[in-house]
Design brief:
- The termini are far apart.
- Strands 2-1-3 form a 3-stranded parallel beta sheet. The chain has a two-stranded antiparallel ribbon with strand order 4-5. It has a two-stranded antiparallel ribbon with strand order 6-7.
- The chain has about 180 residues and is an alpha/beta fold.
- The longest helix has 17 residues.
- A hairpin with a 6-residue loop joins strand 6 and strand 7.
Amino acid sequence: MTQTITVIRGDGIGPEIMDATLFVLDKLGAGLSYEFADAGLAALEKHGELIPASTLESIKKNKVALKSPLTTPVGGGFSSINVALRRQFDLYANVRPAISFPNTKSRYENINMITVRENTEGAYLAEGQEVSADGETAFSGTRITRKGSERIVRYAFELAKSTGRKKVTAVHKANIIKSTSGLFL
C-alpha cells in the first residue's frame, strides 16, 4: 500500500537534505509517494506568499508532511513559518528522543530519554516581540494556558506509559517565573 505525503523541499540547504532523505526512503521501500508543495522563500518567489493555500490543502489531504529547514530571518523580516505550521495544524507536542549508541565514545553511557516540549505556546513562540527604537532593549511575551499545559503533560505521561518508562520529569522556572511556569505546574 502506498501512502502519499506532502514534501516541502525547504530553503537554503533544505533541498539537498530533502533529496538525500527521499533517496533513503525510496531505498528502504517505505511505500511512499510524494506530492511536492512550496513553502518559504521558494513559495514567496513563486506564489507571493510564504505558505500558499495549496500547500496547506495538500498537508490537510495527505495528513503527513515531510519538510526541510525553512528560512526564519533573525531580527526582522517575517515570522517563523515553522511556528505558523504548528499553529495551523495544532502540532503541540515536540518529541525528541535521545539515546546512546553502543561502542560509541561519548561523555555519558546508557542514555535513553525522550524530551517532550509544548510546541504551540510558551516562550518559544515569543508573542508580542518588540525592539526599542534605539535598539537597546527587546521584549517578548509568554502565554501559557491550562489547556496547553494539561494536554502536553497528558501526552508525556501516555508516552511514558506506552514506552515502559517509569518516570516523567517536569522542567520549569516556577521559582522565578511564577505566573506562567506556575500555571504549567
